[in-house]
Amino acid sequence: MSTSWAEFVSADGIPYYYNQQTGESRWDKPPELMSSEESDTSADWVWMPHDYHGYLPARLLATYADGSMRCETEDLQQFDIDKAWAPLRPLFRSQLKKLTDDLVRLEDMSEPLIIHNLRERAKSNNIYTNVGTILISINPYKQLPLYTPSVMDQYAHNNTDKLPPHVFTIAKHAYTKMVEWKTNHSVIISGESGAGKTEATKQILQYLAEVAGSTNGVEQNILSANPILESFGNAKTVRNNNSSRFGKWVEIHFDSKFRIVGARNVNYLLEKSRVCKQAPNERSYHIFYQLCQGADAAAKKKYGLASKLESFNFLNQSGTIEIPGVNDSKDFAETTHAMGILQFSKDDQESLFSTVAAILHLGNLVFSADDDKSSITNKNELEQAATLLQVQSNQLAHALTHRVMVIRGQDPMTIPLNQEKAIDARDSFAQSIYGWMFDWLVSRINVFLSAGIPASKTHVIGVLDIFGFEIFEKNSFEQLCINFANEKLQQHFNSHTFKLEEAVYQNEKIQYEHVEFIDNQVVLDLIEKKPTGILCILDEEIVMPKATDSTFLQKLHQKHEKTARYIKPRLAHHTSFCIKHYAGEVSYLCANFLDKNKDTLHQDLLDVIASSKSAFLRGLLPDTKTKKVSLGGQFKDQLNALMDTLNQTEPHYVRCIKPNQTKTPVMDELEGGMVLRQLTYAGVFEAVAIRQKGFPFRYTHKDFYIRYRMLGKIKGTGDKDLCQKLIKAIPADLTGIQIGVTKVLYRAEQYRTLELLRNVAMEKASIKVQSSVRAWIARRFCKRLSACRKVLREAIKARNLEKLNFALDKQVIEFELKEQKDAQKLREIVIEELRLTKLINELMPKIQNQDDPPQNLIDQLRKAVSECKAISFESKEAKNAAEKLENIDQRIETRKQLQEGVKNSDEHTLGKFLELASKLGIKDSESSVSAARAEVERIRKEKEVLKNLKKALSLPNEDEAKPAAKNRGMSHSDKSQSSSLLPRQSSKMGLTSVDFATLIKSPFLHSGLTIGERGETTISEEAQKDLQSAFSEANKFVCKTPEGKQLVTSAGLVLKLRVSIAKDAWDEVEKELTAATALELIETPEIRAAHEQLLYRANVAEVQQKLEEAYYSHDVPGLEFGLDKAEKLNMDVGWARDMLNYILETNQALEQAIANVELDALEHALAMAEQIQYKKEEVAVARNLRDQVVQLIAEIDEILVSLESREKMEGIYNRAVAIRMHTEPMDRLGGLLRLSEEELIKLMLKAAIALNDENRRVKLSIRMKEIFFARFGDSFVLSQSKKLKSPGEFARGKLFGKDALMAGFLTHSKEPIHTSMTQLEMIEEVPKEHQKQLVKQSTKIHKNILGFCGDRQLSYPTMLAKEVLQKGLEEPHLRDEIYCQLVKQLSSNPTPSSLSQAWKLMKLALATFPPSEEFENYLEMWLKRAGPGADGCIDILHTTTFKGAKTVAPSEAEIEKA
């Protein structure tokens, strides 16, 4: 289906749709472009409420008669929605991709879209989001690289409007406005436990300390207070591993130059009940665990803390002792270190820790249950607690188990306490002591931090870290106080936000509707207004004689039953009341309200503290002379004072949000319902409501015009005039836009319209520009292409090398054309043809008229012809050359074959090639031809001579029968018998396959020859004469043909056999036949007969058997005996004689090889022995010696290549000498051992490099350096390195403290350096601007190092270390600077923990990147002199030097484990 709608994508990746006919545009896909599936699911999209996710995009499937609804989510899950949610908020799916870092810029500032925006941003670890001037901070539940000095510097020195939202932005705005307007400011940080309030507070303070600084280092002291307050005031909860259990107002004071001069802390409502009781999976305050884990053995013994933590009742109730990833011992060291910085005396620390330990022992007291009284059963715990509190144990026991009742007009009465009340007394006693101690601690810190605050007026930035709104299943007095504080703060927040918003509109002088102020004064009056406020009634009740929690509740119902925000329970027996807060309804249980509000101890317990010998403990007691104020009254007074302070400041807000209950990283899980609840409690939606009613989108005149100027062609006299005219020119309803004095303000509806129109205009413009540019490029390219093709085709057609070269070299195109490929191929062919033609023309005149040209010319011609064939080159010259070469080859081959024929008397070959010679015109006078013809004639005559010889030998002639097969072997039909007589029968005269019985009946037998069945022969004189005559004639003729030679040899053998047989000399017969096995013979009937006769000579069998036995047993005497007898019988027993000789030779070889210790001789002798499986004693000796020699040779060869170590080389050499071995490699090894250590190590280093053995290479290099440093090490003093600045250069430009800077140039410092320590400004290959950047980065690196070492209070030390290492990898010029800074922090460092961290970072740096070559030796020598902390550093340095820098920096986990 054709449509005029088209899809486009905006610059920020969001799709939109434009109708090319009507000009209409929209964000959501029009029906015309939807697939059938999309059409089914596009309608009725809504935001579906969900308990876990808050809201989810869903499709409304049905609305039922009762008003309930059914929805289907994107993953096809269906849910039934209660009618209370009707109507569901509609959803425009295009909004899902439009994420923003400021929620007021959302097109629809609704709860669902806010949750969606936060969730999607969190997936990318964007944890900060603005709501106008308010910052939402989501706890990421993982370390992020957001708080390093580099990031801090980025926000401090750049326009934060162009940077992502950050807590540093809030701090910067507060500090900048204080400087500009000389006003006081406050940062109000709120959120529930686990939301990240403590961390946000830390970052605010760190930023202010970094940016403002001080003249006396007080800013670092302020940060040092954090570890102390966290140890005593923070604890693990189910929501947070480091939850602040008190509210805190930190007031930073600045002098007239806006430098920090001091600070004060105010604490609110410490959760004292946590000292005695904790919920499951929670802990008490950190200090209890830190003291038990971190104190030394002597202190633990003194405090009675040798037992496990589980043994303390105040710590074992929750089932949680340890926190994964938290080192309590290490944290205790940080706490005591911070106390040292804040000048806590040893007595102060001793008193604090004794009191903490005493509280633990109080918790272990066990009370007996004796009706209405009780007693302490474990006296040892009582004594330990009393000793630590420095009180009498009996007095303490009596005060815990009794109460003195004083009634006016009567004597005091002592009332015993039952077990339950005694336990309550103990818990109250412990809680009170801890609460007083915490107040003292805050006061003590304030004394130190405020010492520098002048009497004159200062500027102030306060940071409020306070508990967020709380709604639990059971809410008590503490929750009422917390929620009361949040009501106060919300009233302040709403008032400020309202005023700020209307101030913008008034300043811009635009028309706007008055925004109704969201006032919660009614709730505040309900809680605090005299005389009927809840806290007022509570204070009245605690002084009434018979007042109880029930009477208090009844009075509340009487006074407030008709109050708007007060809700009375429907059931009369319920002991609770409900308040409708701004964040929701909260029901409060009245149990223990009166006791908690009293916040006092029995006088007996106060007297115990007053009697203590510890001045510290006595000093904790509250002033008894002043009027007692209830806890609620104290908190109300503190809160009112806080509000007075806040009202005198300009506030900045940070709303901390906890993303889930499982502490899973937020990028993986964000519980929308939970976040929605917290946003409600934080009052964010009130702020959104205020902005929604106003104009959330704001641009300056200039920015508005620049952004939308493509929507109309207009001219104007200024930015404001241009904006007015542009809005009129845009074809859309923009009546809602307001043009103010400096800004253009509008709402989401106008924003959507403007953005759509802008995207359409941008798309049109880009299409037009792209079309024009692409057309121009295409035309230009087409023109070039046509010209190029024309030149190439003409060159191909011409087949001219010069034209081809021109076409290919000059006509360059971006891709290869077919014509280019054809031209390149043709050019190669043409070049080759020209070369071959030239070569042939040079050769042919030299060869043409010669029948037998020189061989070198023939070879050249052959090569030329071969190359012509390879490229199918068939020119006239090439054909003539091929024909000439063929003629030459035929003549050569003919002469060669004629010569071979003459040599071998081969009649067939001679006849064939004589005929060919005639055809080739080879003259008969040539020697080869004439010799061939003569040989043919001689062969003819030889045949005539051989006819008589064949007849005499009883062989057929050619004219009598078919030629008998030549060179056949004798029959093996009786192989078993023949093998015993002739075990080594020659293969040249085999036994014929013709049956002997047939042979003796042959018609060709001579008439004078008779052969019997067993080979007996009878020869007539005639037969003898015929053979002798024919043999003589053949010998005289000198036969040369193979047949002739064989016949003559065979005839000679037959004549010998006749003689031997006639004499009955069968030994001779056997001998002749044995000798004949090596000859080329023709088996005649008589030879065959003689062999058959020998088979019957089995009398030699016995001798044969004896010889074999001696043969296999290597019996030398037996072999000698058998051979002697066989010789007498004329037996062929060479095999036995060979064995005898072999054994004798083997024995001799073994003796000589053992004596000479020579491998080849040993191998040869052992191989001889192995050949016959010789197993005498000498063989074992030789084998053992051979194995040693082989091993040593292999080891020597290996060591000569590897040169592993002198010790190993000497060991191998000495073993070789011990067995008298002597080889040329052994001599070389001995020569190496005579070298000096340095010469030998140099050779070893070359070998390690050749073998790519990095470990040895490093070790040998280390040894070479040790030798080098032993000679020249004193000349490498780090302070004399040219890379390093001089102290004067380092201190240059400083007016004050110059001498101190120079003196401390290379010594530990807690202050950041002001410039680089190395000559970064002098690097020639680096531009000046980059040099400045390097210097600036070097100062940030030093801050990171200070933070990692604990010399400066900065968060996430592992992240700081990672950034240092990453900088070293990214910028090699900074590596030496990093090492110099580490050397500085390691030199004269008085703090063990800082020193340990500095060495840790030094080793990490050494393992990550090497120093420069110029600086390497200086650093190594410094490490050699550095002492125990440098253990292993030099090895790490060498490894990294040779292997090179890593590709990535170590991870946080790797840094933590290092």
What would you say this structure looks like, in words?
This protein is an alpha+beta fold and 1458 residues long. Helices cover 55% and strands 9% of the residues. It contains 56 helices and 26 strands. Strands 8-9-21-10-17-13-14 form a 7-stranded mixed beta sheet, with helices on both faces. The longest helix is centred in the middle third of the chain and has 51 residues, at 748-798. The two termini are 66 Å apart. Mean pLDDT is 85; it is low at 962-992.
Notable traits:
1458 residues; alpha+beta; 7-stranded mixed β-sheet; 4-stranded antiparallel β-sheet; 56 helices; elongated
Name the shape in a single word. Answer: elongated
Instruction: Please give the number of β-strands.
Output: 26
Strand content: 5-15%
| Gyration radius, in Å | 57 Å
Task: Tell me the number of helical segments per DSSP (H or I, 4 or more residues long).
Answer: 56
Kindly report how far apart the N and C termini lie: 66 Å
Kindly state the mean pLDDT as a whole number?
A: 85
Tell me about the largest β-sheet.
7 strands, mixed
Structural class: alpha+beta
